[in-house]
Design brief:
Elements: H1 2-19, E1 41-57, E2 63-80, E3 84-93, E4 97-100, E5 106-109, E6 112-124, E7 127-138, E8 144-157, E9 162-173, E10 177-188
Antiparallel strand pairs: 1-2, 1-10, 2-3, 3-6, 4-5, 6-7, 7-8, 8-9, 9-10
């Protein structure tokens, strides 16, 4: 997994250095950039707040419903030619929680940070699809688990290169799965 992330990062950096030699008028699908520079890539920084949805279990081990855990995300994206991007996503889970793994064992998670590196594709205006991998780390004890993430984001332009972002993601780990939805703001330049 580390080799795959390193290969993706190397390709993205190589592509960014080559694309700087091409000039064209940059205009995002929905956001017109007022910078005046001609380039073939766009940076995006977004901050999002939302919930991670996990199955909740009672004392007898039976599923009793779902837990909605608050989360805060800080993401950085580089989009090349308005269609393809490299996304660095950092999500902080703001509550501790207990999960049940596939073997039926319960374990506690506290102070979680989820770091993922993904590849994005923009098939239509304002809609991003992405897939990536990374790690979920418990900051209290340093235990990490690998994670695979798929998701989508939809941007609603506001003005002056700002947008409201709606995000939906699915996280797959060895021990459990979760879904998250978030809303926030993004700045493009």
């Amino acid at each position: 997994m580390k080799k795959l992330i390193l290969i993706i990062f190397t390709i993205a950096i190589s592509y960014a250095s080559v694309s700087q030699h091409h000039t064209r008028n940059v205009k995002s699908d929905t956001i017109s950039f007022e910078i005046g520079q001609q380039r073939s890539y766009v940076h995006e920084v977004s901050i999002l707040y939302g919930s991670i949805i996990l199955p909740e279990f009672g004392h007898d081990g039976n599923k009793v419903g779902y837990a909605f855990l608050p989360s805060l995300s800080l993401d950085y994206d580089i989009w090349f030619h308005e269609k393809f991007g490299v996304l660095l996503m950092n999500e902080f889970v703001l509550n501790s929680f207990e999960v049940k793994d596939a073997g039926g064992e319960f374990f506690e998670r506290e102070s979680i940070i989820i770091n993922t590196l993904g590849i994005g594709f923009r098939p239509v205006r304002m809609l991003d699809l992405y897939v990536g991998g990374g790690f979920e780390t418990d900051l209290n004890n340093g235990v990490s688990h690998s994670i695979f993430r798929v998701g989508t984001e939809y941007a609603i332009p506001i003005r002056k290169n700002w947008a409201t972002v709606l995000a939906l993601a699915g996280d797959f780990r060895e021990h459990y799965k979760s879904v998250s939805f978030e809303i926030g703001f993004a700045k493009f330049w």
